Amino acid sequence: MKTYLVTGGAGFIGSNYIHYMLEKYGQAIHIVNLDSLTYAGNLENLKEIQELPNYEFVKMDICNKEDLASLFQKYNFDRIIHFAAESHVDRSIKNPDVFAATNIMGTLNLLNAAKKAWESKDGFLPDKRYLQVSTDEVYGSLDDGDGYFYETTPLDPHSPYSASKASADMLVKSYIDTYRFPANITRCSNNYGPYQFPEKLIPLIINNALQKKSLPVYGDGKNVRDWLYVRDHAKAIDMVCEMGELFHIYNIGGHNEKQNIEIVKTILDTLLELLPESDARRAGISYDLIQYVGDRKGHDRRYAIAPDKIRSEIGWEPETMFRDGIRLTVQWYLSHEDWMKNVTDQSYMKYYADMYGKR
Ligand code: NAD
Ligand code: TYD
Fold first, then answer.
1. What is the pLDDT of residues 191-202, one digit of tens each?
2. Rounded CA gap, 161 and 174, in Å?
3. Whose CA is nearest to atom 17 of ligand 1?
4. What is the bridge-based pairing of β-strands 119-120 and 123-124?
5. Does the active-site annotation cover 288?
């Protein structure tokens, strides 16, 4: 039975990954979810599986080296999937420090703990894998047009968020190059799907539209992001871990570039399509809610991933087309209004603070 350390498993992608893995492997794997439960961590995302005997939650901060050392004493991890991070660009513009602390120093702490645990006098123990979950944002920004990010594209991050993620990638690369540390780096495009915190574009627009609040679109609304359904990302991470060439970087994306304004309009159309005439939540939902607001500082114009390598070497393909994924996502938020309410009124924080101590 393989033991997985999943960091940041109470966040958006981490919790979707844990659900995916437990559905796929059942009792054949053991998952330890390490999360410090920042504002972005929500154990409600995992309540259906919290009692499983092969799942454990550990409240821990990756910035705390002593705690990490004791965790690695207790478990013999076979896989480390490192999601934990500060992840929101707008927050990084206002408060970069915590991004450097968690994303750079936290990653270094984790690398050191794993290196120590996996090193033997004959090199690293066999069949161990560390996977650094990174982002296409480390490549910087593309012009309007048809260029793509490849694994060989030079890193050129612009926001404090992407700079901290690029720094973490460089640390992982240095451990590969210096020690032959058994790692991979994956760089994925923008994710969407269930359990995404409503500070990010898609859940924010869904939530605001249901509240009849204005829908803020930055700048001219023509910035382009390349969207991938979160479950396809989870599957790609698992495939890279099991079939990827050790030490390699893999881009993950599904060729699904959309302008932000197009995303906002699609969400409104989908809400109107899914909500019956008789549903009170439908009234007042229209394009009139869209409000163009000042642009994000240093706003990257366009991201677009070339996923050729993961397709040809590993055989990964996205399974969920955008029109289906966005329907599933809007449907999920419509049927999980309690989840959204607990997040927006912050009661989720109080509930888990009572259980696991203050944040
Ligand atoms: P998220 O903000 O939803 O979740 C981050 C999780 O990390 C939270 O549960 C939080 O409590 C935890 N965390 C934060 N600081 C911590 C610390 N110091 N110690 C332990 N846990 C801590 O983020 P997400 O959107 O799920 O992203 C997960 C990872 O995927 C990140 O590394 C991000 O850079 C990367 N990524 C995200 C996207 C995207 O579109 N969201 C795309 C590509 C890559
Ligand atoms: P976001 O979801 O924050 O992801 P990222 O910045 O990591 O790509 O934003 C996606 C795009 O949507 C980005 O171009 C910024 C834009 N955006 C808005 O126009 N309005 C908003 O309220 C938010 C949160 C984002």
1. 999 999 999 999
2. 20
3. 61
4. antiparallel
5. no
Residue 321 has what DSSP assignment? -
Q: Which ligand is nearest to the CA of 38?
A: 1
Q: Contact, 29 vs 4, CB < 8 A?
A: yes
Q: Is 356 in the pocket of ligand 1 (CB under 6 A)?
A: no
Q: Given a cut of 80, is residue 353 above it in pLDDT?
A: no
Calpha distance 224→146 (Å, rounded): 11
What would the pLDDT profile of 260-284 be if each residue is shown by its tens digit?
999 999 999 999 999 999 999 999 9
Q: Please, are residues 213 and 292 in contact by the beta-carbon 8 Å criterion?
A: no
Tokens representing residue 15 in the block: 């919790």
Q: Which amino acid is at 148?
A: Y
Q: In angstroms, what is the span from residue 94 Cα to ligand 2's centroid?
A: 15
| Residue 345 known to be catalytic | no
User: Other C-beta atoms within 10 Å of 291: how many?
Assistant: 11
Token code pair at residue 189:
């495009």
Give the DSSP per-residue string, 212-271: T--EEEETTS--EEEEEEHHHHHHHHHHHHHHSPTT-EEEE--S-EEEHHHHHHHHHHHH
Tell me the fold of 2-356: Rossmann fold (3.40.50)
Region 125-143 average pLDDT: 97
